[in-house]
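Quick illustration, no need to memorize.
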Amino acid sequence: MPVDYQFGPFRLDARLGILLRGTELIGIGQRAVALLRLLVERAGEPVAKEDLIAAAWPGLAIEDSNLTVQMAALRKALGECHRAASGSRRWGHKDSPGLAAADMEPQRHRN
């Protein structure tokens, strides 16, 4: 059953593979969507680089730079939202994009 995740002003529609800010569609690719979904599902927990790669590139061997590019796309898409909660410019396999803060806890909604 598909699940939507809401955090801050954002909604991640897992069924459609899209990210919305309010009613505005945020243009990120499917790999970035897969990474964000994993980070939201594990909000507040460290996420291993290997888990991120497996989520976005299942069964493929990739260079770390591919992950770096996708994480940069997420940072850009989320804007200041991830920095305000995490207090960090950088996030990825060591910490999630600030989704662990009380006002950023994801809420799952089944469609």
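Confidence is low (pLDDT under 50) at residues 83-106.
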